[in-house]
Amino acid sequence: MNIQLISKRRFQTTLFYLAVILFLIVVLLPIYYIFLTAFAPSGKLFTVPLTYVPRSLATARFQDIFGALPIARYMLNSTLLATFSTILALTVSLLAAYAIARLNFPGANMVMIGLLASSMLPGTATVIPLFQMFQTLKLMDTLHGLLILYGSALLPITTWVLVSFLRQVPVEIEDAAKVDGASFFQLLWRIVLPVIRPGVATMFLINFIIGWNEFFTPLIFARGAGVKVITMALSEAQVIGARSEFDVSWGNMSAAAILTTIPVFIITLIFQRQIVEGITSGVFK
Amino acid sequence: MFGQQNLSTRRILLAWLLVTPVVLWRLLTSVYPFLRTFYISFFDNSPVRRTFDFVGLDNYMALTRDTNVDATLTFTLFFTVTSVALQVVLGLAIAELLNQRFKMRNFTRAVNLLPWAMAPIVIATAARWIFHQDYGLINDIIWRLSGERPLWLVNFTTARFAVTITDVWKNTAFLAVIFLSGLQGIPLELYEAAKIDGADGARSYWYITLPLLMPLIISMIIFTAIFRVLTFEIVYALTNGGPGTATSLLSYLVYLEGFRVLNFGYASAIAMLLFFIVLIVGVLGYGFLRRAWERL
């Protein structure tokens, strides 16, 4: 290999790593900046130029927002809604997916396409009648009312992905179980579920993140403090102790942003592989 | 004991029993409310004035005269085209980056997912601070490089770019993951054959990678475009549609008209306009997609 070729390759490698570093900075720096803002001691927040390496960190803002807002309650509500909407959606989607993938019934395709089409109906194009329905049925400001809406949003994609997972699994094991006289629910619980457990686990993670991050639905349907969720804490945190409309506490907002984000970051970093598989299986299969 | 006919009837019955919960749930919370929105759009319906009067096409006629709707459609077009173009180009580039073998590849792939995992409302609210004129991160960097401090959220054009940049930052990760998976599905032999024929990296990308990814790219353009039209949180928390109506989007307009002004009839007509645009994007996109598949 001649020297020119080696130096060309070295140049390309350098360029490549520069691109990687640039990418990491663009993604991580804004997150780091919010972290800095949340932990900056008061008085150190507004500096020109910015100090990127702080001398000291303070947790006062977290104490402030926990003191002024029912943050624990918000987080509990978010956890309950994300968990139970996920479990409910997975259960009914699994039933439907099994029927579509295995029972070969007339109308199976219609159900699949209908689900996809209904997921294209914008939330804003359904929200007004839902609001009126919820008022009539006394579902406003209730967790079970929110659960109905959170779950509904998850159904189309979850069903699609579970169908795709089921189609990749051979039918023979199920046939053997049928011959042995297993009842339908035994079959589903003991044979089908263990085989597609990775797919179910993946959809659990993704749906939990979607539920945790939900904002528009609670904005309209959860106005009482008892049912509010953590994504609503940001705008409330930034006006704690505000003297006017323009008096915004960026520090408190950042602290609330961190509390909202930490759970989804932990899930994402631990289950990176499964999440990527879930995202792509919704598109490709 | 059971005839063939009987067994298959039982199977079909069981199948419909199993899909009923999902179908019913979606019908009640999505299809019915949507049809109802269409119905309400022909009424003057306000919970404040306690009205529910049939007004025919009045709400739709009002749409054509509403300058807010004009401004919103203008920004919707700008936002959708700019954001989708940036996301597709950057998504392809990041996918290529993450597909190489290098140290820290797993770490970089994990970092890529972080914006995807964050709540849109968190990113939108935090972006207001990041675009802050005096103390924001972006202006600190620009100021160090050029000595300028642009007023991002006050000027028309820069506010539009601020919304677009925020959206691109959050959503490009998703496309990168999809494109990466597409890249991994291309057989390596194709590249080896091209190398023997003397093609360099850029050429084999242009003549092998891009054509093979094209159906995927087009379907992702449709998907991404539809979700740009539906965007709510970024505009709600970052700009409130402002300055003026420079960054207003239809979902935000439905929210304002429906839940601030409490004008359900008119808000429903805006929602139908939104649905109609989504439908057009979907149908046009589907046409392109079919042509791309045929060419492959």
From TrEMBL, chain A:
Keywords, sorted A to Z: Cell membrane, Membrane, Transmembrane, Transmembrane helix, Transport
The ABC transmembrane type-1 domain, residue ranges: 75-271
InterPro entries recorded: BP-dep_ABC_trans_perm (IPR050901), MetI-like (IPR000515), MetI-like_sf (IPR035906)
Keyword flag Transmembrane helix: yes
Membrane topology (UniProt): Multi-pass membrane protein
Compartment(s) where it occurs, according to its Swiss-Prot or TrEMBL record: Cell membrane
Chain segments annotated as transmembrane: 15-35, 80-101, 113-134, 146-166, 187-210, 253-271
Listed PROSITE patterns: ABC_TM1
A single BP term in Gene Ontology: transmembrane transport
Assigned protein family: Belongs to the binding-protein-dependent transport system permease family.
Name of this chain's protein: Carbohydrate ABC transporter permease
Protein's organism: Caldilineaceae bacterium SB0664_bin_27
UniProtKB/TrEMBL annotation, chain B:
Membrane topology per record: Multi-pass membrane protein
Domain ABC transmembrane type-1: 73-285
UniProt GO BP: transmembrane transport
Entry keyword Cytoplasm: no
Segments crossing the lipid bilayer: 12-35, 75-98, 110-131, 205-227, 234-254, 266-289
Location relative to the cell: Cell membrane
PROSITE patterns: ABC_TM1 (PS50928)
Keyword Ligase: no
Family annotation (SUPFAM superfamilies): MetI-like
Pfam families hit by this protein: BPD_transp_1
GO cellular component, one term: plasma membrane
Main location: membrane
Family statement: Belongs to the binding-protein-dependent transport system permease family.
Protein name, UniProt field: Sugar ABC transporter permease
Species whose genome carries this gene: Caldilineaceae bacterium SB0664_bin_27
Taxonomic lineage of the native organism: Bacteria, Bacillati, Chloroflexota, Caldilineae, Caldilineales
